[in-house]
Each structure stands twice: as C-alpha cells, then as structure tokens.
Amino acid sequence: MTSTKTNKSQGVKADRTMPASFYRSQDLYERSRDEIFARSWQFIGDSDTILSDGTNVVPVNILEGCLDEPCILIRGAEPGALSLHSNVCTHRGSVLVEKPCHVETMRCRYHGRRFGLDGCFVSAPGFEQAENFPTEQDNLAKIPMQSWGKFHFASIEPAFTLDELIGDMKERLHFLPLDQFHYAPELSRDYFINANWALYCDNYLEGLHVPYVHPSLATLLDTRAYRTELLPYGNLQVGVASNEADAFELPQSHPDYGQHIAAYYYWLYPNMMFNFYPWGLSINLVIPQAYNQTKVRFLTYVWRPERFGNYSTADINQTELEDEEVVHAVQRGIQSRVYKSGRYSPTWEAGVHQFHRLIAASLGF
Ligand code: FES
Ligand SMILES: [Fe+2]
C-alpha cells in the first residue's frame, strides 16, 4: 500500500488509483467487513413492505452474505414506533426470531427466555438462583436505526451520522413526495457479479465511460453539463438532460432551478446508490459476497409511471448489463502481474478518487 501513502497530501490531479492488489485481497476484504461495512449505514427497507399487515416482529439480516448480522425490527405499541434490536438471545446466543410474526413477547425456543417488545429481558427459567441477575446485558442490544420518511437505515457501529450520509439528499430532494413512491417488486431484481464490490462502485462513480459503454443513455445526457458534487460521505452526480430527455420540475426556490435535470445519482459510502428520475427512484445496494463476488440488489420505487418515457426500468436493466460487462473486464485486468494502478481523470473521476480516499481512511492506510 505504499503508493496510497504518497496520495495523502496530493489529490485527484496527482494521485494514483487504488492498487490492483486491493481488489484481489482476501485479507483486505475481511478487514473491510469490520472496518467499512459494520461501521456504515445500510438500507434495511421501507415501512410499506418491511412489516406486512398483522406482524409486529420481523427478522432483518444486515448485509446478507457479508455481515449477516441478525437483527429484529419491532413495531411497538405506539403508532409508527419502530425499533431495531439484536436477534441473538442473550443466554447462549441462539437466533431468537426466525420469521415475521405477531407476538406479545418473544420467547427463545432453546431454553425459554422471554423478551418484551422493547427488547428487555422478561423471564428465564432456571435462573432463579442466579446472582446479580438480570442486568442490562440480558436485554437485547439496541441497534442504531434511523429513517428518512418511509425509508429505514441501520448501522451496527456507525462511524458517522446518518445525516452526514444523506443530509444533502434529504435537503435537495425535499420537493419529492416520498410517501407516494411505491415499491414495485416486478421491476426489482438482483444481479450477481463475479467481481470485487469496489470495482462495481468505481464504475458507478464516473461518467467518463458513459459515451463508450452506454451509447443510448449518452444521447439523453448533456455530457458537457454532467457534474459530480462531493459530500462528506458520498457524492452526487447530476445528469443534465439533453433536449430529448424528461426532466424534473424543480420548485423556484431549488438551488438547481432552471437546470434541465434528468437524474440525480447519489452514491452513499460505501455501497448504496439512490438514483432519482422524474418517474421515481432506483435504489442499488452493492452487497459483497466474497472478495471477488458481489450481489447488486436493484429496488424500484415508482412515483409517476406515466413518466417512464425514454429512461425506464428496461433501459436501467440494459445499462446494468453494459456496466457488468466492463466491470468483469476490469476484474480480469486487475489479476495482471503488470498492471499496478492508474491515474484519475480530474474532470470525471473526482468521485472515484473520493471513494478510494474514504476506503483508505477507513482501513487506516
Ligand atoms: S439460548 Fe435462548 S434461552 Fe438459551
Ligand atoms: Fe455505467
């Protein structure tokens, strides 16, 4: 990692990209799980779908296949009161709740310990003689969870606040009625990619490849006006529409008022993308499965289906397949004994540079 050390005082104009060895390293992948992912915020679902009618307790697995942290989302007695707790029994560590259900208390099937809907210990057979029992440690640990409208995020051990992550998105898109965005399962799907998760993010974070890899998308964007804005823990790519493309109707008070904007592409460190279009929202969750395998979950939320127009979910699928092809080509390329790292385009790759600096900071390079 010596090349990244020299990066510290430089910047996008002078630095070299992440060493290829990073993407090949099982060891750095293991460290990333603890030092990047366990400390990040993850999207866990929306109010409409996460707790179906009649259930008040639902198991939630944070970053399935990567962290696999068992949690339980609990709807309390107060209307709208949601909380997230560890789903691991505080006795000997059995997973407590296996499927969504409606219960008054949660009882561990192993030795019968009970917990209330506030996560607190209620009773434990066989512990009558136990001294100094129960204590705080016998309650189910609370997991930090915060919401933006109907969208819920959780973090096991947050290294930064949710507001630092999504503050700009909340403010800039305050004019969108999120409660009218509805999850469309038929337009949502998972993609499986044989590549390192960070290569997938690298590709998302620059528009330089758009004219080469996505010729039809390129006709909808005014590439001269395309820009990236850096945020504390992420960035925003603003897709300015060409004359043919549909655009947001921005309120007059909006900082981007007067611009013809086809898409706001938010990337949230380390692995989430929130892509807003005039018809709704496409959330992409990049979920590492191994150092060289990644699942990408595309969740579609439709607001105004009549505006699918010239960039609908079929086009998003096409763009995704085009991206996968180049990401696979890079995955093959970074196995090389000759290639070590490259340089950033100062015009186009400020977002990739920022991503690499954030990884380096998280891992203490
Ligand atoms: S592990 Fe839950 S009661 Fe023993
Ligand atoms: Fe792309």
In angstroms, what is the radius of gyration? 22 Å
Strand content: 25-35%
Please report the distance between the alpha carbons of the first and last residues.
Answer: 7 Å
Given helix and strand content, the structural type is alpha+beta
Fraction of residues in helix: 10-25%
Q: Architecture of the largest domain, CATH level 2? A: Alpha-Beta Complex
Shape: globular
CATH classification, class level of the largest domain: Alpha Beta
Question: How would you characterize the overall build of this protein?
Answer:
This protein has 365 residues and is α+β, with helices and mostly antiparallel strands. The protein contains 10 helices and 17 strands. The protein folds into 2 domains: 42-154, Rieske Iron-sulfur Protein (3-layer Sandwich); 168-363, Naphthalene 1,2-dioxygenase Alpha Subunit, Chain A, domain 1. The protein has helices spanning 2-7, 20-24, 26-37, 47-50, 162-172, 197-204, 210-213, 215-218, 313-333, 350-363; strands at residues 42-46, 57-62, 69-75, 82-86, 106-107, 114-115, 121-123, 145-148, 151-154, 182-183, 189-193, 227-231, 234-240, 261-268, 272-277, 280-290, 293-302. Strands 10, 11, 12, 13, 14, 15, 16 and 17 form an 8-stranded antiparallel sheet that branches. Strands 1-9-8 form a 3-stranded antiparallel sheet. Strands 2-3-4 form a 3-stranded antiparallel sheet, with no helix packed on it. Strand 14 and strand 15 (272-277) form a beta hairpin. Helix 6 (197-204) crosses helix 9. The longest helix has 21 residues, at 313-333. The termini are close together. Mean pLDDT is 94; it is low at 1-7. Bound molecules: FE2/S2 (inorganic) cluster and fe (ii) ion. Residues 203, 209, 213-214, 319, 323 line the site of fe (ii) ion.
